[in-house]
Specification:
- The chain is an alpha/beta fold and 394 residues long.
- Helix content is 43%, strand content 18%.
- The longest helix has 19 residues, at 345-363.
- The model has no long low-confidence stretch (mean pLDDT 93).
Length: 394
C-alpha cells in the first residue's frame, strides 16, 4: 500500500513529508515545510482520491496530525488534491426551505460555541465579519472599526434615525452606530450567547437608551415601515436560496419609503451557487455552517430587485476578507493552548482548518463577499441618496 502511495504522490513534488505511524517516512519534495503524521494506515488508500473534505475530516478525526505553519498546510493540501483530482467543480446542490427551528439550531451550533473562544482571535469589539483595510498593514482592530464606520457612512445615518440590525452578533455595529451617529438601534439575533454578551457590553457602554437587542427571528418582525435604515452583516448566508425572496421582502416591508438597506454577505463564485470544488464547501457545510448557502451576487441583486429594492451600489471586499481571516487564523494559532481549554480537541481542529482554509479560499477567488446598498424608492420613484460617493470619503 505504501509503495502505491509513494508512486502516486511522489511525482507531485510537494514540500511535504509523510510519516506513517510505526512505519516509513517519505519526502515528496525538497525542503518539506509540512509534515503529515498518518495515524491510520487505511488513510493511505483513501489519499489516492484526496478531496479537501476527506483530508479535513481525517485531521478532525485524528486519523492524521499535522506539523508546520497552518497556512502552508492548507496550501499543500490544495496542491495535493488538485494534483491528483484536477480542478473539478461540484454539481449544483439541492435546496431546502429553511424553517425557524432549522435556522435557530444552525445558528446555535456555530455561534453559541464559547464567547471566550471567539474573544481569543477576534478584535476587541468582537466583530465577526470582514474588516475594511484602508491600508494592507492596518491592524485587525483598526480594520474592523473602519468597516463599522464604512457601513454607517454608506447608510448615511443621521441623529435620531431608527436602524434595524439583522443578525447583530456581539453588538459591535449597534454600539458604533449609536455612539458615533446618535441613532436608535434595534438588533436581533438567534444566538443566546451572543445576545448575553452584546447586552452586557451595551450596558457597560451606557448605550441602553439607544440600543435594544433581542432574540428574534427576522420572520417574526411585526408591523411595517418601522425603520429608517436596515443593515444585515453576515446574515443572508444562513437564509438559504429558497428563502431569499421572503427575506428581502421582509426587509423591504420594514424600511420606510426612501430608506436604505445594506446587505453585507459572502457570495458564491458560480452563478448557480454551487460549492467550490474538491470538497471544500462540503467540509464547511458539515463541520462549520450547517445549512449555510451562498447565493451568487446576481441572485442576491435579482432577489432584492424583485422585492422592490433598487440597488444603488455594490462593493467587493474579497481581498479584505482574506486579510481579515489571516489575522483571525494567526490569532487562533497564537492562542492554541488557551483555545484547547475552552473547546474540545475536535472543535479546535475544525476551526484551525476553517479559518486558514477560508483565508486561502478568499485570496484565490473561491468565493467573494459583497456589500450591496439598496433603497426603497419613494412613491414617485425618487430618493434622496447623494448623486455621487464623495460624501463617503470626506
Amino acid at each position: 500500500m505504501f509503495a502505491q502511495f509513494s508512486e502516486t504522490l511522489g511525482a507531485l513534488q510537494l514540500p511535504l513529508r509523510v510519516v506513517v505511524k510505526g512505519g516509513p517516512t517519505l519526502d515528496l519534495g525538497p525542503d518539506p515545510r509540512v509534515t503529515l503524521l498518518i495515524n491510520d494506515l487505511g488513510l493511505l488508500q483513501e489519499m489516492q482520491n484526496p478531496t479537501l473534505d476527506k483530508l479535513g475530516a481525517a485531521y478532525i478525526d485524528q486519523r492524521l496530525d499535522i506539523q508546520g505553519n497552518i497556512m502552508d498546510v492548507i496550501a499543500v493540501a490544495d496542491r495535493l488534491s488538485k494534483g491528483l483530482l484536477g480542478d473539478n467543480t461540484e454539481p449544483a446542490p439541492e435546496r431546502t426551505e429553511h424553517d425557524k427551528q432549522m435556522d435557530a439550531e444552525a445558528i446555535s451550533y456555530h455561534y453559541d460555541l464559547s464567547n471566550d473562544f471567539y474573544a481569543l482571535w477576534l478584535d476587541p469589539q468582537m466583530v465577526y465579519s470582514c474588516g475594511y483595510f484602508r491600508n494592507p498593514e492596518d491592524s485587525l482592530a483598526t480594520a474592523q472599526t473602519q468597516k463599522l464606520d464604512h457601513l454607517c457612512r454608506k447608510l448615511r445615518l443621521k441623529p435620531g434615525e431608527h436602524l434595524l440590525d439583522v443578525g447583530c452578533g456581539w453588538g459591535g455595529l449597534a454600539r458604533h452606530a449609536a455612539r458615533y451617529y446618535d441613532v436608535q438601534v434595534h438588533g436581533i439575533t438567534l444566538s443566546k450567547a451572543q445576545l448575553a454578551l452584546a447586552q452586557a457590553r451595551s450596558e457597560a457602554a451606557g448605550l441602553t437608551d439607544r440600543v435594544t437587542l433581542e432574540l428574534r427571528d427576522y420572520r417574526d418582525l411585526a408591523g411595517r415601515e418601522n425603520y429608517d435604515k436596515i443593515v444585515s452583516v453576515g446574515m443572508f448566508e444562513h437564509v438559504g436560496h429558497a428563502n431569499l425572496g421572503a427575506y428581502f421582502k421582509i426587509l423591504f416591508e420594514q424600511v420606510k419609503p426612501g430608506g436604505l438597506v445594506m446587505n453585507h454577505g459572502i457570495t458564491a463564485k458560480y452563478i448557480d451557487g454551487r460549492q467550490v470544488g474538491r470538497g471544500a464547501g462540503k467540509f464547511i457545510g458539515r463541520y462549520v455552517f450547517p445549512h449555510g448557502e451562498l447565493p451568487h451576487l446576481s441572485m442576491a441583486i435579482a432577489s432584492m430587485s424583485e422585492q422592490g429594492l433598487e440597488v444603488l451600489d455594490v462593493e467587493s471586499l474579497r481581498l479584505h476578507y482574506a486579510r481579515t481571516l489571516e489575522h483571525w487564523s494567526g490569532n487562533l494559532e497564537h492562542h492554541l493552548e488557551q483555545a484547547g481549554q475552552l473547546v474540545s480537541d475536535k472543535t479546535l481542529r475544525i476551526w484551525r482548518i476553517y479559518l486558514a482554509g477560508c483565508a486561502y479560499g478568499f485570496k484565490r477567488n473561491w468565493m467573494n463577499i459583497h456589500q450591496i446598498l439598496a433603497v426603497k424608492p419613494l412613491a414617485d420613484g425618487t430618493h434622496h441618496v447623494p448623486w455621487t460617493r464623495e460624501d463617503l470619503y470626506r
